[in-house]
Amino acid sequence: MESFEAGEKKCISDVRRTFCLFVTFDLLFITLLWIIELNVNGGIQSQLEREVLHYDYHASFFDIFVSSCSFFCI
Question: Which of 4, 27, 59, 63 could, after both became Cys, cross-link 72 (CB 3.0–4.6 A)?
């Protein structure tokens, strides 16, 4: 009887575990894509300054990265 009760108790549900994996891989994938995009467009340092400090909605992927980070933190 004790082994049956121990088997029923889960620390994290399957749905929550799947959601956490999805959010983690989403953050990693978006970060990798943003780094590749920064490097292709003329160097990471100058592009970071342009995309973060001189933010333009039409030409920056910084908002996508921030939304992915906030989704990960929730």
Answer: 27
